[in-house]
Structures are given as structure tokens and as C-alpha cells.
């Protein structure tokens, strides 16, 4: 480690100890040096002993800065790894952090645009409208058309801190499997790798701009979801300009009720938006927490969501979508055998998995869920139960499913906050059943033919020539096969003759040796026999060439 990393590591250790997080170190022989080092080298007391562990962990991550805040937010979605008392506290990490100086934001914008800010924008507000762990936004007005916009700017000098912290995270993650009894199952290195990829994606605002444009196109003229317009001519890796939107934060239920919003329809539309993104578009907003969702002021009786911050998106391939939809339907039909078979067929669990044992494990975990009314069953926890059970059968971590599970938990939480009686299954089941029918029925065949029509139209004029070339290659291939068959037959004959001569040679050599051992010195017959045997071997060896 270089001195800067050592200094940063010391600061991190000091913060963690001041919040008493050293109690997370298990008391086993392997961790004895760490515990002794804590007693001998670090005399920093726990300054927050009166607070529970989960809360102390959250506060420590907040104090460590933006990178660790983001890391805590990502960990909060991995409820399969942490108890609820910890995961719930991590989920409370706020997006809003202390903003950096607006004058620095102005300098950054001017450096990215290559001209004074006033050349492109009017009414620039140097006071940040909102500030998150990675970037902050300022309001302005486009000079070319007078439209209100927000300018998102990456925090200055954040990359060196990210790189230093990521190196430390990897180092700590590599130690955990040796320190914690269950460290290998937690896959700490993979968790950090997943986090690093998410973080780097968010740091590239060109990627976020492209994601926003795609989502906006997917829901163009939709009454369910509105994505603000992006102005790509003003965007770069560290700066993005998009339409300013006005709406009610989806978490402000009191304000939504005050303006007469149809909360039942709003909650159902949240579910429909999610499943439409996943199954129709294979492109879903994977960071749909309440801070990124607003509700339009217009038409409260026909409410429309507004989605922002599209830096993290997920996608599923055709196979994953089909298996996932069939899993949901099989689960809610209590067909656990089908659920087990789908996990094996999809490759999510090894092919040698005992389906009967797997089915019984799923039934044991999931059957009690159906003691509740369907409206009380959590879709996200259904996935969680399925994946946790499958993990006992060596299910590999599926990153695309982890993102989907996190997003589904967000969507379900928002829906139930808006309308506690929301029956998510009743809302989703018709969508899933219709989607599966659409994938395997006549419409799917017609759609496939339509998609392939341009290819066949291009190849049709070449078809006679392709058929002729095919016959020609077939004839040539047949000749080659016949020639190889003849050569193989000849080779087998030669090998048979060689084996026969080797046998004759061995017999002659043995007979000659036996007669010679009898002391028949007056006869040269044994020598002739041995010579004949050697000649037979040489001829046999030649036949093998």
C-alpha cells in the first residue's frame, strides 16, 4: 500500500471503531490477531454504544462518504445476505448528501462545453437543486428554446477517491472468507465487483443519457410512465442536460391524497410498468427507489409516473424471461415440481440436482406463505425464498436476477405504501399469462416470420445457386467419405496382418529360445527359428506404416 492508501485505511478503521463495528469480527482463533491488534494499537472507544448495530453501520457508512454510502445502498438490496435489522437500516441511507460548491459546478460545465456558461444557458442557479453521492443537479434555462432544464454534474475529483476506496474494498473482501465462518457463501469479492460495475456505470453520464432516451422511446405517449427528455448535444461523460420536471414525490402520500390522486390505479400502474419493462422491452429501470419516482400534477384521476436517474438498468434474455414468468405462475399455482424443473432446465442449478429433493425443499419453505391472503404475499420475498432455497442446491448467483429482485422489492414497497390493499399477484398474473401465450402461440410464429422475412427476401434470389452449391459440396463430401472408408478398410487389413506377423514372430522366438535352452548344440535349427521370428516382427512393423 502507498502512504495515501494507508492514511485512508486508518481513517476508515477509526470511523468503524468509533461506531463499535469491531463487534462484527467473529471470536474465533483465526481472528485473534485482529482482536489483539484492536486492543493494543487502537484505543478508540465506541462512541455510539447506545444505538443498535444496524443503525451504527448506517451512520458509519454515511460518515465515510459518497462511495461508502452507495455501497451501503447496494448492500441493502441483498437481503439474502443480511438480517432484516441490518438491511432495513442500510435501506434508510439517503440519496441526499452535502453538495459541493456551485462555483465548481459552473467551472466544470464551462470546461465541458468549451465556452462561458451564458453561451448556452440562462438563469443558471448556482445553488444545487439536489445532491446525491455521485452527482448533483442545478437548474437553468436553455438559451436556444427557453425550456427549463436541469444540469447534472459529476462531483469533482471523485475518481481518485473511488479508485482508492475500491482497492481497499477488494482487499478487505479478500480477507473475509478467511475471517468469517460463512464468508465464502457471502461471496464478498463478487459483491464488490458487482458494486464497482454499478458505480462506474453511474459515473458515465453518457450511458445514463442513452438509457433515458431508450426508456423514453419505450414509453412514448404512455399514460403510465413519463421519462424526461434528454438533450444529447449538451451531454458528456461528466455532465447531462435534461428536461426539468415537476411532480409529487411518490413517497409523499399525503400530498397525493390532497390532490385527489387515484392511489389504487397508481399502485397497479407501478406493477404494470415494471412487468412491461421486464417482459415486453427486456430493459428495465433498476433503481426505482422512491427518490427517483414522482407523480405528475396533471390528471390525478388518471395518474402518471415520472421516472428519473436511469443510470442503472437491467435486462433479461428470452430464456430468463420465459423461465421467470413460468416460475411465478407455477409458484402461485403451488406446482413446486414445475418450479424445481424450471430451475434445472434454465441452468440456474446444476443439471445433476435431485429434482425430488429440490421440490420438497421449495415446498417446505414456500407452502406456509399461502396461509396468508394473496394480497399479503410479497412478490419480492417469493423470489427471495426461491433463490435462497436454490442456493442450498448450489445455485450460481445470477446478477440479472439480483437486479430484478431489488427492483421488484422497490416497486412492491412503493405500491403497498400507496395502496396497502394492493393484490400484486392479481395485477401481475393476467400480464404474465398473456405474455407466455403470446410467446408460444400463433402470434409468436407470425412475429418470428415477420422478423425473418427481410433475411429470406434477401436470400431468396440466391436460393437456386445455394441449392446447387449444396449438392456440389455434398457430392464432394461423399467422395471424401468414400475415400476415407476405403483407406480405413485398408488400414484395418494392414493392422490385422501386422498383428498376425507379430504373433508368428513371438511364437518363433519363444520356440527357438526353448530349443536353445535344451542344449541342442549340434543343430542350428533354434537359431533359424529365432531369426525367422525377428524377420516376422520387422515385416509386421512395416505393415503398420
What this model shows, in words?
- With about 550 residues, the chain is of the alpha+beta class.
- Among the domains are: about 5-95 and about 160-200, no CATH class; about 315-440; about 475-545, no CATH class.
- The protein is about 60% helix and about 5% strand.
- The chain has 21 helices and eleven strands.
- The protein has helices at about 5-20, 30-40, 55-65, 65-75, 85-90, 100-115, 160-180, 185, 190-205, 205-220, 255-260, 265-280, 320-330, 335-345, 355-365, 380-390, 400-420, 425-440, 440-460, 465-515, 525-545, and strands at about 120, 130, 135-140, 150-155, 225, 240-245, 245-250, 285, 295, 305, 315.
- Strands 1, 2, 3, 4 and 6 form a five-stranded antiparallel sheet that branches.
- The protein is extended.
- It is a multi-pass membrane protein.
- Is probably a protein kinase regulator of UbiI activity which is involved in aerobic coenzyme Q (ubiquinone) biosynthesis.
- Its EC number is 2.7.-.-.
- Pfam families: ABC1.
- Keywords: ATP-binding, Cell inner membrane, Cell membrane, Kinase, Membrane, Nucleotide-binding, Transferase, Transmembrane, Transmembrane helix, Ubiquinone biosynthesis.
